[in-house]
Structure formats: C-alpha cells, structure tokens
Design a protein that fits this description.
Blueprint lengths: L1 E6 L13 E5 L4 E4 L5 H8 L8 E3 L5 H4 L2 H10 L7 E6 L2 H12 L12 E6 L5 E3 L2 E7 L10 E7 L2 E5 L8 H6 L4 E5 L13 H11 L4 E4 L3 H4 L8 E2 L5 E3 L1
Parallel strand pairs: 3-4, 4-5, 5-6, 10-11, 11-12, 12-13
Antiparallel strand pairs: 1-2, 1-14, 2-3, 7-8, 8-9, 9-10
C-alpha cells in the first residue's frame, strides 16, 4: 500500500502545514484517514482523484480532523460529479456531528440529497468492521471531554497493518493499536513537555519497547517539535510525503 500525508499539521497551522489527512491506496483500497478543514485544498493541490476514494475514517470531530468533510461532500455533489459510493466511518455521534458540521459550514446543506450512495457508519470501541477491503478496529483514546468519542485506528489490508493514534494523551490502548504494525503513525505534539490531551515524544519513546512497530512516523507536531526535527531520531511526517506501507 501507498500512503501520502495530505496534511500532517496541528489545529493551528504550525509550520504552515495542512490539517490532518492521510491518503492510502493499494491494489483494492483507496481511503482517507481524517479529513481536516484544509484537506480538500491540499488534495486538489496534490492532484488526488477524489472520486476514487471509497472510505473516510474519522478519528474525532475536531475541525482539524473532521472539518473538511462538508466541502468534500459538496464538491462531490456539485463539481466532481461523484457517482461511486462513499462510506464515512467514525465514533458514536458521527451522524449527528456530520449534520452539525454541514449546517455550520453551509446552512441548509444537510437537506441536500446526495447524488451518490453515502453511508455514515458509527462504530463502538473494539467493534471491528470489514468494509471496502479494509479490516478496521477502533480503540478509544483520551483527547478531552468534548468533540469525541476519540478513536485510534488499527487497519489491516492487503497483508499490511497500519496504525494511527489520532490525538490523545498516553493511554495503554495505544499498545494494542500499534503492536507490531508495519506502520505506526503517532502524534508527537511536544518533545518532553507533558500536557493533558496530547502525546509527547518522551512518553511515546518510553513505551515503544512495548509497541515495537516495524516503522514509526511522527505527526501533528507543534512548533516545539518542528524547530528540533533535525535532532529527532524518528522519521517525521511532511505534507505531501509518500511512503510505502
């Protein structure tokens, strides 16, 4: 499988980076992990074929991970002329949060019937689903009292395991998420500073012997991390970067 970091930034544009959105393609899969507010612009800049995307996995309902869905869906409706089915997967309250986002971004838009099959699929913790050639398992993580529930994802497809922490402070569920994964994408908001709701690199490093991913890439970094990338031993995501999983 091939993964492109459409956006790897935080909520506040640190380093001039786009919001979180990862595009994954393979022989039989084509999906996004998160779709932040800037994602449609970033995908068009990268020349990604929007109508080929089959599935969008949403970790939580903060704008830098979820806010790009309204323009994505309306572009599919009116400009990209999408006909193929689209499945959006997320935590409990996905349906309600989707309507709220549509109405906030473009009042009245939630009443427009899509011209393509659109499925919104809500999952519970550890509720695995087989869909569009993906085996997806969500794990609850800790990112605050509002905007959730908050998911990390473990995704199995085409003989590979891809894991992503989402936004979270340390929780032991991340061990199960990333254990022996071919690729583990992990938030590293600060280097040593520990704050509620976000993961720092020092804490992640302390737990890596328990996780043992085959490859680790850091994402969602604040300026505290960005200005010290040259001193970090792990690979750091960059907008537009492409890797093989």
């Amino acid at each position: 499988m091939r993964l492109q970091f459409v956006g790897c930034g935080d909520a506040f544009g640190s380093g001039g980076r786009f919001n979180t959105c990862f595009h994954v393609t393979g022989t039989h899969v084509n999906f996004l992990i998160d779709c932040g507010a800037t994602s449609l612009v970033a995908m068009k800049q990268l020349g990604i074929a929007l109508n080929d995307i089959q599935t969008i996995l949403i970790t939580h309902f903060h704008a830098d991970h979820f806010g790009g869905l309204p323009p994505f869906v309306l572009d599919a409706q009116f400009f990209s002329k999408r006909k193929a089915p689209l499945t959006i997967i997320g935590p409990h309250e996905l349906n309600l949060s989707f309507v709220r986002a549509m109405e906030t971004a473009f009042p009245g838009s939630s009443q427009t019937k899509p011209k393509f099959p659109l499925q919104l699929l809500e999952l519970a913790e550890h509720q695995s689903v087989e869909i569009n050639n993906l085996h997806v398992t969500p794990h609850l993580v800790k990112h605050g009292p509002a905007g959730g529930p908050f998911f990390a994802y473990r995704i199995e497809s085409e003989g590979r395991v891809l894991a992503y922490t989402g936004d979270t402070e340390w929780t032991d569920s991340l061990i199960d998420v990333g254990k022996d994964a071919d690729l583990f994408i992990a938030e590293a908001y600060f280097r040593e500073k520990r704050v509620p709701l976000h993961l720092d690199l020092a804490t992640l490093d302390a737990h890596l012997p328990e996780i043992q991913p085959r490859r680790l890439i850091l994402t969602h970094m604040s300026n505290d991390m960005l200005i010290r990338q040259d001193t970090i031993e792990h690979q750091c995501a960059q907008d537009g970067m492409i890797i093989e999983v």
